[in-house]
Amino acid sequence: MSPTSTEWSRDSWKSKPVAQDVGYPDQKQLSNVLSKLETLPPLVTPSEVERLRYQLSLVQRNEAFLLHAGDCAESFDACTGENISSKIGLILSFSLILIWGARLPVVRIGRIAGQYAKPRSSSYEKLPDGREVLSFRGDNVNGLDPNDRTPDPERLLSAYFHSTTTLNYLRSLLTSGFASLHHPRDWSLSHVRSPSLRREFETLVDGLSDALDFSRTIGADAGSHSYERGGGRGTLGEVDFYTSHEGLMLGYESALTRELPVPASVTQTGSSALGSSGPINAHYNTGAHFLWIGDRTRQLTGAHVEYFRGIRNPIGIKVGPSMQDDELVRVLDVLNPDKEAGRITLITRYGASKIDAHLPGHIHAVQQSGHPVAWICDPMHGNTETSSSGLKTRHFNNIISELTSSLRIHTACDSRLGGVSLEFTGELNDEGFSVTECLGGSMELSEEQLGLRYQSFCDPRLNFEQSLDIAFLMSNHFKK
Ligand code: PEP
Ligand code: MN
Known about the structure:
Layout: H1 27-39, H2 46-60, E1 65-70, H3 81-102, E2 106-111, E3 124-126, E4 132-134, H4 154-175, H5 195-218, E5 242-246, H6 250-255, E6 257-261, H7 264-269, E7 281-285, E8 290-293, H8 303-309, E9 315-319, H9 325-335, E10 344-348, H10 355-369, E11 374-377, E12 384-386, E13 392-394, H11 396-412, E14 419-423, H12 464-479
Parallel strand pairs: 1-2, 1-14, 2-5, 5-8, 8-9, 9-10, 10-11, 11-14
Antiparallel strand pairs: 3-4, 6-7, 12-13
Helix pairs in contact: 1-4, 3-4, 3-12, 9-10, 10-11
Cofactor: Mn(2+); Co(2+); Cd(2+)
Pathway: Metabolic intermediate biosynthesis; chorismate biosynthesis; chorismate from D-erythrose 4-phosphate and phosphoenolpyruvate: step 1/7
Binding site for phosphoenolpyruvate: 111, 318, 349
């Protein structure tokens, strides 16, 4: 019998070992906070979650492409209007470039509105002054300041409210014309300093304007998106956007998990796991549309896999070099026993030098198992290194190398890369300059320049220009 085949409940994960667990000194305070969270309103709805599941099933069928992107970790201080709009602007620009090249709809999922918690390789950090303190675990657990490292449950509430604030502004931006394909120049292109990148983006935008004018002339502008279940709700001027975070803090995640009716549009079309008649309830994580299990918390008999197996949201699984082929299939058997389309996205992150040794075996094992999955490449997390000045960085060439290897291997294995997962930011400093955290790219960022505007308190992110470099590279690949 599978170790996880027993009855699932919102709290059944508590009987399993919790990797990356946080030791709160005051359990009473923690349970008060979690009780409060249980009463607060959902951030997302079942119909949004189901729409994403459906769109991810199209990614699995090669009818759409997935862009998963944002900060490694959000911080409470960086929750500002400018930061949110520049993040969305970059995701929209990136997806527009992909749509233009691949001629496929792009499903956009931001690492946003809840991406606060961080898994750590070590529980303790040695400070330069010799002191040893608890590691920083993200703004929803403790403070970056070494004197503020005691886990504080109130931070979970603060994370909830920062998530709602972010989402509130995000929803306003998306419905007030900012995301309109008719105004792509609003997405802060003015800050792109490389003349050739600017030219390339402007040529694309001019082509798009012509295409939109043409559609308007022939009256095709008001139609529905063909990739929405049950007809579209918007025009070309509106876009879908979804939120995601790593489902690391299980107390928080289960407090936001609610048993709610599955929308009729889903039950009527039938789903093997749901049955087909009468109103049906399911457990939705209402804190984000999409959640993923990190590479450090995906143990088959652990608490995270147990929690994730019971929620209806589409989920991601990080797949690194330590994942065995048969282990991957067993994780899929537990998390998607009915082999439902749209449920699982595998986010591979091996490193440029390791992908050849692992990805073909993983693809083959999944193909043999008959599990439907979307494969997306995270070329960031296997390529982190320390620069000579001690800053954590990633080299653009390694990122490109893992990505192009992934495209090549999928083709060779009769599979298809369905998307990318990136850590990037459109954030600018007061003088309008981008961050300097990853090396290389068309701007040829050097080791000496890394310290200029290094703003990440977590993993190094691609900046605006480096991200557009990747978007054009992928777009050109799919054009061929
Ligand atoms: C992340 O996505 O920020 C992360 C920590 O990834 P992984 O679990 O793949 O290391
Ligand atoms: Mn990261």
